[in-house]
Amino acid sequence: MSKTPVKILDSADVDSSAQVGAGSSIWHLAQVRDGVTLGENCIVGRGAYIGSGVKAGNNCKIQNYALVYEPAVLGDGVFIGPAAVLTNDEFPRAVNPDGTLKSGSDWDAVGVTIGDGASIGARAVCIAPVRIGAWALVAAGAIVTKDVPNFALVAGVPAKRIRWVGRAGQPLVDIGDNRFRCPVTSATYKELSPSELVEESE
What we know:
The protein is 0% helix and 34% strand. By secondary structure, the protein is mainly β.
């Protein structure tokens, strides 16, 4: 069986060294830099930027004007909302203490790591170094400064956990005894601590 071809619009700027998986689409004015690895069936929206060496798994959606700076790593099924930003400079400066312009060798890039199935809302900012757990949901406009647990819904400035969410992305319903149920799939989850939720086996 032949794989679905890659679709790259003429106005997109995709470096020749970037690896783009089958079935992926890169839209108008997007820039995908050197050494990037995109998995299969990914979508890179209009005007999005993906920095050198960024790695993204299969079935990721990077929406319009999102900025994904290296060395970010995205798991499978990650959603990056419109105009969201993944930073890479912990102590940003344009110049060195002596006033000379900083070059790439004058600082160490740090990245944002995002687990499978997680979503970053529109205009949210994840300040590296930080890890967003699997299936977590970062609300639109949130500023993430600390690691986010798996299945956590975080919001605000700085972002704090306000609920738990399941794989469907909707807030879980508290059914007592530190257990929660997804209103969409009926899957159940167990809270082991205020910062840890696990799926219960069938």
